[in-house]
Amino acid sequence: MNTPPFEPKIIGFLCNWCSYAGADKAGAAQLNYPPNVGTIRVMCTGRIDPQFVLKAFAEGADGVVVLGCHPGDCHYKEQNYRMIQRHRLTVKFLEQFGIPADRCRLDFVSAAEGEKFARVIRETVEAVRALGPMPKLPPPPDGGQGVDRSDRSDGSDRSDHHQECSCCH
Length: 169
Ligand code: FES
Prior knowledge:
Blueprint: E1 10-15, H1 19-28, E2 37-42, H2 50-58, E3 63-68, H3 79-96, E4 104-108, H4 114-131, H5 159-164
Parallel strand pairs: 1-2, 1-3, 3-4
Helix pairs in contact: 1-4
């Protein structure tokens, strides 16, 4: 009896304004990409706390892909630059547990880049498939129940984000 090929489960965090629209564009153009990515729409990648990523892994994801507006194009000013900083910390944390950075990709897809969206998804799925199933991670420090914004490790101040984005309340 043949064992079915490993099909990775991947969580995609997509910024509403650019990458989610890029995904729509890929769909409207009927571009081919694998169905392994379950998407979570966020208003901005600045909304993505590293604990969201760790929780996705802790709950069974084999990979995570974060897609946002290109640097300089974030609708909430510099929030995606802050996401880049947080992503580096997240990848370092994962690497301490022997989890390669290829399991957690950050990229930028604009609303006009349906083809890039499809390509990034294809590449991500191929990379994670090559790595095999995700080893078990310890649970996030607070069990993934919430995010304490009073002590942000990247020193970011979200006050400007809160003014413009209702997603954080
Ligand atoms: S609005 Fe898209 S990354 Fe901020």
